[in-house]
Amino acid sequence: MVLVTSGSASKFLAWNVAQQLKAQYLNTEVKHFPDGETYIRFLGEVTKEEVIVVQSLALKPNDYLIELFLMLDALKDLKAKRVITVLPYFAYARQDERFKSGEAISLKTVSRLIEAAGSEYIFTIDSHRHRVVDQDDLTTIPLHDLTAMTELAKHMNNKHPLHNPAVIGPDAEAGAWAKTAADTLSVDYDALEKTRHDAETVEIKPRKLDLKGRDVLIVDDIISTGNTIIKAIDVLKKNGAKNIYVACTHPLLVLNALVRIYDAGALDVVGTDTVPSAISHVSVAPVIADAIKKLK
Ligand code: R5P
């Protein structure tokens, strides 16, 4: 039997993945002791079963990571047949390099701990680990990064038939995501040039793009403070873009980001359910289920 479970982070998404796979959803009980420690219990048998653990690590990464480690290690202990970890939002992936001497490379630490806890596969979605070329550097188990960009582009195009659109990534790293979305719509794409000064301050260089009278779909992996998207909207408007729409995989939406993006001139902003939010209108459940079906 295939079981799909989650800690407190992604119960609804895990249930959806189970529906897609025609598998059984396995609920968990999650509690916190008065001193802050976490308790987790599977509410059903897992011995000899294949178990898929779906746990996003958004917004409360440390709590959700401890839940994940407790689940994975318990599954090993309880002799589950095979354990697959799905991290719809992979927190700690942005620190994928030692930018300053002495820094911990959190991407490596978290990947290695998930493997050590007993997972045999890791799936992520539009994960922000641009500087790791060699995957073997992270884990010895397979790590597959899936994308939601195709689903996001289809959703936007169905909702707002786009007029002569271009897909734009707000920085060089988003270029690959822009290409995937653009290929889905059979349109062209480009990427802007961004410099990040700190977690809340980014600069996007003005560019000359031929966008006069065209609709633009901005795509990115994450919207956190929204500052990247707001700066991109400004540059695109100056280049003559007509209607601007925004799609992201992971809508973290901190610091009133959504209101500020609409105020900047976006006509619609959509995200996925890797992070439950007011704009999580696209589900990644089919993307996860398709990838898991291919394992067999
Ligand atoms: C970083 O390069 C990512 O791809 C996103 O552009 C970034 O995380 C967005 O952050 P914010 O919304 O705070 O600008």
What is the strand and helix layout of this fold?
Blueprint: E1 2-5, H1 11-21, E2 24-26, E3 28-32, E4 38-42, E5 50-54, H2 61-77, E6 82-87, H3 106-116, E7 121-125, E8 143-146, H4 149-159, E9 166-169, H5 175-185, E10 188-191, E11 194-198, E12 201-204, E13 216-223, H6 227-238, E14 244-251, H7 257-264, E15 268-272, E16 280-282, H8 285-293
Parallel strand pairs: 1-2, 1-5, 5-6, 6-7, 7-8, 9-10, 9-13, 13-14, 14-15, 15-16
Antiparallel strand pairs: 3-4, 11-12
Helix pairs in contact: 1-8, 4-5, 6-7
The structure holds ribose-5-phosphate (R5P).
Describe what this molecule looks like in 3D.
It contains 8 helices and 16 strands. With 296 residues, the chain is of the alpha/beta class. It folds into 2 domains: 2-147 and 284-293, Rossmann fold (3-Layer(aba) Sandwich); 149-273, Rossmann fold. Strands 2-1-5-6-7-8 form a 6-stranded parallel β-sheet, with helices on both faces. A 6-stranded parallel β-sheet has the order 10-9-13-14-15-16, with helices on both faces. Helix 1 (11-21) crosses helix 8, helix 4 crosses helix 5 (175-185) and helix 6 packs parallel to helix 7 (257-264). The chain binds ribose-5-phosphate. Ribose-5-phosphate (R5P) is lined by residues 128, 170-171, 173-174, 202, 220-228. Residues 128, 170-171, 173-174, 202, 220-228 line the site of ribose-5-phosphate.
